[in-house]
Each structure stands twice: as C-alpha cells, then as structure tokens.
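Q: Structure for this?
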Amino acid sequence: MTDAESSLEFSTSLTSSLLPPPRTRIFKIIVIGDSGVGKTCLTYRFCAGKFPDKTEATIGVDFREKVIEIDGEKIKVQLWDTAGQERFRKSMVQHYYRNVHAVVFVYDVTSAASFRSLPAWIEECRQHALGQEVPRILVGNKCDLRHAAQVSTELAQQFADAHSMPLFETSAKNPHGAEDGSHNHSDHVEAIFMTVAHKLKSQKPLVLSQPAVGNTVTLRRQDEGEEPRANWGCNCWRS
Amino acid sequence: MNLRNSRSVGACSLLNGIEKQDADSRRKRKIAEITQALNTTPVDVAVLRRMAISEGGLLTDEIRCKVWPRLLNIPVESIPEQLEEVQRENNKDYNQVLLDVQRSLRRFPPGMPDEQREGLQEELIDIILRVLHKNPQLHYYQGYHDIVVTFLLVLGECLATALVEKLSTHHLRDFMDPTMDNTKHILNYLMPIIERVNPDVYDFMQQAEVGTIFALSWLITWFGHVLADFRHVVRLYDFFLACHPLMPIYFAAVIVLYREEEVLDCECDMAMLHHLLSQIPQDLPYETLISRAGDLFVQFPPSELAKEATQQHSLESPASTSEDVQSARRRRKEQLRPPQQQQQRNPVEVQRSALAVVQPTARRIMRLAVMGLTVALGAAALAMVNSALEWAPKLDLLFP
Ligand SMILES: Nc1nc2c(ncn2[C@@H]2O[C@H](COP(=O)(O)OP(=O)(O)OP(=O)(O)O)[C@@H](O)[C@H]2O)c(=O)[nH]1
Ligand SMILES: [Mg+2]
C-alpha cells in the first residue's frame, strides 16, 4: 500500500490494539467493483475518517483495518480493498476471497458502465464459492455528483432487490449529506460499514423489508439512540 | 543473514570527511569510466552494465539518458525525433489509462508547478497509448503507468517512448499478456528464493498463508508504485535495466529477508503479515540489498527455481481432492510448457536456455566477489536483448 496517510492511521489502530482482549473477533469484508468507482476512497473514509486527498490505482489487494466497539465488544473490521481492473480479478485476488464474512459491491452512480458490470462481479463471487449466507450489500458511490448521475435510484433498487441485497447510496467525498448545507451529522460511509458489522455480530439471517422505492431514511448516529441494526431492513439510504 | 550489521557507521567527523572525499573521487572515477565506455566504438555495453549495477548506479539523469538506451540495445541514432500522433478516442485502454494517470500525482516531484505536471501527464497518456497501439499484442495493466512515468521524467517523451516500447516487448512482456497467469507464475519464484535463504521466514509465511500478492505491485511496477523517493526508484531501474527480467523478484525476496525480525515478530496471520509486508520501509539500504539480490541470483538462478515455482503453482490451485490436485498439476504442466514458438517470446524461457550456456563458467563466477557476480549476471541479461549466440563471446571478453 502506498497510501502513507492510511498507513499512519493503521499503525495507530495497531498500537491501540496491541493488547487486545483475548480473541478479538475479526470481521473480514471484501470490497469489489469496477476500477474508479471509489473502493479505495470508501475504505479509507471508514478507516481514517476522511476522504483521501490523493488516491492511486490499487494494484492487487490493499488492506485496511479499524477496531470498532459494538455493545461493549471490541471487533476488528478488516477491509480488503481490491483492484478493479478486470485482469486482476481471475487469478490474482482469488486468495483473498477465503473466509470472507461479507461482500461490499460498489458502483459509481455517475457511471452506467460500472453499474452494468455488477452481474459480472456477482458471478465472480459465485465462482469463489462464497455461500448465500455471506451478507452482501450494494453501494452506489459519488452521490455528491448528483447532477452527473447516470444510474437512477429506482434502477439500482430493482437490481438490489433482485439480488436480495440492501442498497446504500452515498459519497466517500461528502458523506454528511446534501451540498445545500442542510445538516445531517451522521457519516453514511461509517454507518454503512457499521451496519454490516452489526449484521455480522448479530449473525441473524438477512431480513429484508421492502419500503416503497425512493423512501429516504435519515440515519442517526448510534449514540443518538438508534440501533443501526434496525436499519438493515431498509434498503435505501441516501445522502 | 544479517544485513543490518553490515552497514558501517562513520565514528567521527574526521573519518566522515575522509569517507566523503573517497566517495567524491569514486564518483569522479565512475563518471570517467562511463564516459569512456560510451565513447568507444562499439559502445562497451558490458562496462555500462557493470556501472549500472555497482554502487550508486548511474549517478545522474544526464548519464541515464545516454546509458539506459544502451542497456536496452537501442541505437540512439535510430530514435525518431518526431512522434506519431495518438488517437485517443478509439483506444480501448484510454479510459483506464486516463483514470490511472489522473491518480498518479504522487509520482511527480512535490514542488513541480501544476501546469508542468499536467503537461507531463498528457505526455504520459500519449506514450502509453502510442506503445499499445503499435503493439496490439500488449495489454495495459494498472501499474504500467508507474513504470512509464519514471522513463518520462528521466528521458523526456521521445526517448521514453522508444525505451518503453522495447521494455514492454522484453522485460515487461509477461505482465502484458491478456491474462495475469504468467505474472502469477513469476511471483511463484518468490517463496523458493526465501526458502533457500531463510527457512524460518519461509515456514512462517507459509503458515500464515500470506500468499504473494503483497509483492505484485513491486514486481509489475519495478517498485515505482511503492517507493516515495524518486531517487531510489531510478537507482533500482539502473539495476533492473542491466539485469535479467526476473531480478525484481529476487529484489523482492531480499526485502522480505531483510525484514526477517519484523516478519517473525508479526502475528502469524494472513492479514497482518500481508499488511506488514506490503508496507515497504522507505529507508532501505538499497546498495546492500542490490548486491545481495545479485548474489542470490547467481546462487539460485531461475533455472534452479523453475521446478518449485511450478509446484507452488499447483499447490495454490483450489483443488480439494488428491485426484484434483493431480490433474490440476498435469494441466498446469501443460500450460507451463508452451509451444516452441511461444517459448521464444517468453523472457523467462529464453533466459533458462541462456543459463544453460553459462554453466561452464559458473564455477568461476561463484568464486568472484559480489561485484564480479553482478558483472556476470549483467552479461547474462544481455542474452535477453541479443541472441544467445551473440552473447556467448561477450562472456569470454568479460572473463578472459
Ligand atoms: N466526487 C467524488 N469522487 C470520488 C468519490 N469517491 C472516489 N472519488 C474519486 O474517484 C476516483 C477513483 O477513486 P478510487 O477510490 O481510487 O477508485 P477505486 O475503486 O479504488 O479504483 P481501482 O483501485 O482502480 O479499482 C478518484 O479520483 C477519487 O477521488 C466520491 O464519493 N465523490
Ligand atoms: Mg482502489
């Protein structure tokens, strides 16, 4: 990994977890999708809490980690940020699909092509023999560029429903909400990964409710009293 | 292996002063030798190789402009001064190249004005597309741009285009196949090298099941993607340009071995070890590591590792029953023994046969000091660029 900042961030999280309580649970999440959709930015945003000012093409697989706490239990969330270019998919990253607990599919809302690639990514997962019980989510990134959007929420929602995945629309760059300055302090990116973590912790089968398309749920922070787990069922968040 | 202790530290300032004078005069001597080699007819490529490998490499970008083309056997006179126009729109790789080049800000000197950098980024795109267009058998990979940018920054667009084209059809050829199977095969040389030198590190890595992808970007970008200091990058390029195309994998092994203590102290876990290893320390003792890599190359030449690298391959195949393993292995063997024609364009294969020629002198090579060793492999690498026949007499010149 060349990302100096992320390594800094990582080493602090390593130090803080130097003496973990015996057998800290590890959740291993793989992040996949076309090149340029923002996988590196999303994982960086979650682990370092900000948008990286420079990213580079991911070659092979990068690894980021964050220690989180759910119900008093410390949990390591490991994010495997994979290369998007097709040639890396087949032989290269296969090793890193092993023992994966959850999959995050990412597309770019401003790129119809990245959305059209999703079936190929789903097939990729199938080939790596990931079971149906492994939770999957769909993330539409770059929602801050709404004016340039090419993939409608409706279309994405249909796709997500067809594959029994919750859909999240967000932005790694500006996950705090609309550009119009309306205030929503929660960070969607963080909430998305936290939701996956809650899901994994609860280990209950994925329950999907089907709210009307376009139904926007405002996500509040965990400390504001709402259980993110409860949000698993709503399949669309928008920033 | 304890490379750390081999770095001597100057004890007092007087000594430092003397050392500095020494270094200055060594440098002057080296520049003189390079100039002389360039001015003889024909140009003394063997000397230039030795200079590129030995301490400090080629010293300045000015020298690199003159020597790098020679290391790739490109006659400078033949390089056209006019570059062909580039068709961006109809190029299948344009979008990916653009995306990667736009994100390559870190490869440019920090103080460079935006305007100048943007101009260079445009040139970078053009070089890549031009080479790909002229060689439809080559396929772009993410990381190729990290190599090309190094040539652009050192040589300028014209020279860079010529060198990158040659490099892409030789040293980088395997990475530019339609698939990454050959690249994966080359990565499979890593563990056998580590095993030979330090079985503890090898066992630990095997137990952690760390795999070799942590070294993928090192290999396919010649470390251009992971080293922050451009001076280190060009120093390594001096070395790699003068050597066998597999040298970057030996260098990767040497880095892992250098970090023996850290590796063995790490949690024996795939994620932790992958993370540790993919994070390259920026203060590596490059000169020591370079000569160490040269040593290992001669001690354990690719021909000797080829068999294990192949086995490594089949071990990794996700076959569950022993029967599967057997048939997978058989399949792999078939894949790995390409038809004659294909063999010729595969650098690894070409070199394997070249090394067979080197055997008579091998014993003598073994007895030489590191420098001598690296001369030998410089000569061996020449076989890459020339034909084995042309190259054999040159070895006699080196070791009369
Ligand atoms: N406006 C906007 N740009 C973004 C966002 N996320 C990422 N980007 C930009 O999109 C480009 C690609 O982002 P990366 O995170 O490098 O993409 P990736 O999916 O990791 O790409 P590969 O590593 O090539 O597979 C970069 O130039 C980012 O700055 C976002 O939420 N909004
Ligand atoms: Mg990336």
